[in-house]
Amino acid sequence: MGWWPGDPDATAILVPAPRGAEHESGAQDRTDLLEAAQGGDVQAAHLLGRHYAQRGDRAAARRWWERAAAAGNVDSAYNLGLWHEKHGSLDEALRWYELAAGADDTEAAVNLAILLLEQRGDLPAARRWFETAALAGSRTAARRLALLYEDDGEAEAAGEWHRRAALDGDLASSHDLGFLAYAMGAEEEAFTWWERAARSGHADAAYHLGLLLAARRDAMGAEGFYRMAAGSEHPGAASQLGGIALSRGDLRTARAWFERAATTGRVGDQRMAGFVCVELGDSGAAGHWFGRAAAGGDPEAAFNFGLLLIAELGDLQSGQHWFRQAARAGHPQAAAELASLLAVTGSAGGAHDVPEPRAAEPGPPAPTWERVIDPELVARAELTASALARRDGAPLRACDLTEILGTWDLVTRPMPEHTDAAGWLSAHSGLHQGAVEHLGSVRDTLLRPGSAPWPTAAEVEHVLNIARDLRARLGLR
């Protein structure tokens, strides 16, 4: 795939070039090779096949490689595997790769395992060949094997193979080892693996190490690794740096960072860029960012976009449109503003024309929790969401996890002591104590990874509703 001269797919498909160039001598022209090959010289037959491959003669290349491979030339068998992977049949590709792999060819074993897994779905055979290649020193095979064990839920075996790959220089496996350690509550080990990858240029590792340091209240250390990740254009790191600048009152720097994150399509950062631009008096830029976030489905941005359109441009019709969009998503202020606007403009229906929130919405949108609670909690929420999203698990929204953590922090502040938080909250809110305890247990899991399995998406949705009900009963926003 992609190595045949003149092949239009050459740049689109990733298959290595045919092997054997290290044996080729410039003094050997085609005539010499042909004479030697016809006389039974196996290496000459192999090089003759490569000679024809370089000139685009597929049939001749295949013929001479088959002759050399049948006589035991492993490079020719490997090249035939490549040839059939692109130009022939899968069965033949597997046959030649297996022949080479059986002769201890590590690259052939890796390619064979990949085809067995991705084209045949033969997981047991693929795993055997990956293990063969990994034990022979293939970093690629060690990583692939680790991921297979992760998919099967065998964290210990996955960790061992990731460790082999990481120690051989695989930065992605170092990053993965950090998450495996974090999920088990081994934060020092997570720190070690993420730092190893981060200092070698892995942006995600630098970002997650920054979050871990923020979760451990090392703000200066966190900022340093966010900057390292942002240097590789990591949008999450840019967003974190925007928040840090905003907390220091440095609006211009905050704007620059939020806009860097916003240009990647992150709706929350588009909204934040809009807010900062409002503070800086740049209504045009604020409208741009609020508009993009609103179009992306963000109700808070839609509400503020509506306010901006009315206040700056006097555009009541467009303002009404965005209030309506936000109200449909459950934004209470947007619903109130829309009702007032309809009453003032004398629109038929008035307040009755205000849309009901979508039934699928669990309730009114929460405050922007990350701006009002301890940064440690925000970092824990982000780490949990990243840990679950890394291997295509059920996605959890960091903002939902932040709200759960922030709710517990908010509702327990008035307590004289925290010895029986669930009982106290149940008594003061009228909410069943079991529901409050469920909220508290999920909160504990997020703060102390490894103490219990990660919450499922359904569990998070359920607990989020408990959190909102609890706040409402206690008269808290």
Account of the 3D structure:
With 477 residues, this protein is mainly α. Helices cover 68% and strands 0% of the residues. The protein contains 25 helices and no strands. The protein has helices spanning 30-38, 42-54, 58-70, 74-86, 90-102, 106-118, 123-135, 139-151, 155-167, 171-183, 187-198, 203-215, 219-230, 235-247, 251-262, 267-279, 283-295, 299-313, 316-328, 332-345, 375-389, 398-411, 421-429, 433-447, 457-473. The two termini are 59 Å apart.
Order of helices and strands: HHHHHHHHHHHHHHHHHHHHHHHHH
Helix content: 55-70%
| SSE-based structural type | mainly alpha
Mean pLDDT: 88
Shape: elongated
**Low-pLDDT stretches:** 8-15, 22-27, 359-367
How far is it from the N-terminal to the C-terminal residue, by CA?
A: 59 Å
For the biggest sheet, the summary is: none
Number of strands: 0
User: What is the CA-based Rg, rounded?
Assistant: 30 Å
Helix segment tally: 25
Region (Disordered): 347-367
Protein name: Sel1 repeat family protein
Organism: Planobispora siamensis
Task: Please describe the structure with a list of short key phrases separated by commas or semicolons.
477 residues; single chain; elongated; 68% helix; mainly alpha
